């Protein structure tokens, strides 16, 4: 309805509809969040505290997606849902010559979308208007409680993820107990007396023969590697079958996080396991996703001769599909570093939030598919972002590198077809290891046990 009013130039009606929708939004969000509650699943091989933390992570992950689920009704699918309210409001109020509400709507949009070019342009426009001062350009107070609650939700998720990593590490250190202590003594000390047993090895539920990876050194850089033959064609085909369950924009606030000229779809490893639990996905496909990720991790740790454990930080099955665009001048994924934020003006790359500063290594395991373009490339440096070395995707090819500014990288435009790969990020810090990876393994182990 709001979109129709916008295209009809019915500005007063547009403003009224959006303001009414804003009043209803907190109630709609709460209804969505309430639907996320479910029964507590007690993992057989997890301690009580770990089970509770994992349950909380599942709950909060579901609740944090509510704003995006409601976004299915957004005015324009290229806009971030919550921010789009204020994009349309500022324009509606501007057309009604209501300057102050328009300015405050623009300031709120910029607060929600600080990296949006549209939000920045709107802000510049209003700041340049005669008589507008810094005191005028402030976000709306009435939506601050909702914004603060969403920020707290994301902060709480981060704390839970860190706590889960602490518990898993502590459980591993305490496994079997200290010499001379029996179970009763351990119970007196803490309720991690029965820590989780080690997860089964990947080979425990194998259903295919694995190839022997072939390390290909196309560069002398010690922080980069390339390996072929990590997956067989059959394994690539099966993982491509799993991509049918990818969802648009998975894991990102925007459905098109990198370019609007491609359809971005993803499936994280926990969602794959849950779909197997619910009968939507054959369990062997989700297990192959897990095993291929572990196989990649082990190859990287061996090739880089790491002396400390390498932990998963985030695992994501992603596909990029070209749209019908006559001429492409953009990249599929702009040049970036995986653990710092590039300042293009100075060439510095700062390891500060919101960058994932704990990431130490990154990798892409290609599944191929029918597509054109989409080559991965390393840039020359932080000051010269042009391609230095390119890598063409093919089934079973693994590209890995250290995640810092020494390996600025990007992806050329996918000009035709669909390009799929498993994207992997790793950390040497156990406090930041991917709790959802262990949760996925637990779910798949339970499915196997029951079957």
Keywords:
alpha+beta; 41% helix; Jelly Rolls; 451 residues; L-ascorbic acid binding; globular
Overview of this structure, please?
- This protein has 451 residues and is an alpha+beta fold.
- It folds into 2 domains: 2-144, no CATH class; 214-450, q2cbj1_9rhob like domain (Jelly Rolls).
- The chain is 41% helix and 18% strand.
- The protein is built from 13 helices and 15 strands.
- The strands form 3 sheets. Strands 1, 2, 3, 4, 5, 9, 10, 13 and 15 form a 9-stranded antiparallel sheet that branches.
- Helix 2 (11-34) runs antiparallel to helix 5.
- The longest helix is centred in the middle third of the chain and has 31 residues, at 144-174.
- The termini are far apart.
- The model is unreliable at 72-79 and 168-208 (pLDDT under 50).
């Amino acid at each position: 309805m709001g979109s129709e009013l916008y295209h009809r130039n019915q500005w007063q009606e547009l403003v009224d509809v959006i303001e009414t929708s804003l009043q209803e939004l907190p109630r709609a969000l709460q209804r969505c969040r309430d639907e996320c509650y479910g029964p507590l699943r007690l993992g057989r091989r997890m301690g009580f505290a770990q089970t509770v933390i994992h349950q909380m992570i599942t709950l909060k992950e579901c609740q944090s997606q509510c704003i995006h689920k409601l976004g299915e009704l957004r005015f324009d699918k290229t806009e971030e849902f919550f921010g789009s309210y204020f994009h349309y409001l500022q324009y509606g109020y501007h057309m009604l010559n209501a300057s102050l509400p328009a300015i405050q709507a623009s300031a709120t949009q910029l607060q929600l979308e600080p990296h949006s070019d549209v939000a920045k342009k709107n802000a510049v426009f209003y700041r340049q208007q005669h008589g507008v001062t810094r005191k005028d350009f402030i976000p709306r107070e009435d939506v601050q409680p909702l914004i603060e609650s969403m920020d707290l939700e994301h902060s709480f998720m981060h704390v839970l993820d860190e706590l889960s990593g602490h518990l898993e590490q502590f459980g591993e250190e305490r496994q079997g107990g200290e010499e001379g202590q029996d179970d009763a003594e351990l119970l007196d000390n803490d309720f991690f007396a029965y820590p989780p047993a080690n997860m089964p090895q990947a080979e425990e539920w194998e259903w295919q023969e694995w190839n022997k990876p072939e390390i290909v050194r196309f560069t002398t850089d010690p922080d980069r590697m390339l390996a072929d033959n990590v997956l067989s064609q059959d394994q690539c085909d099966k993982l491509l079958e799993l991509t049918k369950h990818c969802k648009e924009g998975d894991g990102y606030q925007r459905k098109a996080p990198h370019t609007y000229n491609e359809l971005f779809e993803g499936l994280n490893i926990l969602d794959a396991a849950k779909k197997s639990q619910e009968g939507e996905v054959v369990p062997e496909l989700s297990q192959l996703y897990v095993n291929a990720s572990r196989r990649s991790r082990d190859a990287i740790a061996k090739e880089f001769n790491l002396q400390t454990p390498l932990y998963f930080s985030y695992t994501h099955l992603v596909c990029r599909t070209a749209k019908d665009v006559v001429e492409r001048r953009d990249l599929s994924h702009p040049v970036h570093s995986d653990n710092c934020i590039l300042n293009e003006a100075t060439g510095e790359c700062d390891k500060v939030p919101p960058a994932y500063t704990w990431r130490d290594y990154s990798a892409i395991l290609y599944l191929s598919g029918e597509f054109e373009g989409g080559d991965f490339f390393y840039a020359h440096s932080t000051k010269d972002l042009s391609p230095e070395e390119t890598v063409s995707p093919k089934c079973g090819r693994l590209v890995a590198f250290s995640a810092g500014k020494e390996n600025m990288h990007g992806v050329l435009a996918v000009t035709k077809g669909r390009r799929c790969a498993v994207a992997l990020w790793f950390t040497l810090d156990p406090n930041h290891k991917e709790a959802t990876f262990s949760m996925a393994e637990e779910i798949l182990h339970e499915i196997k046990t029951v079957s």
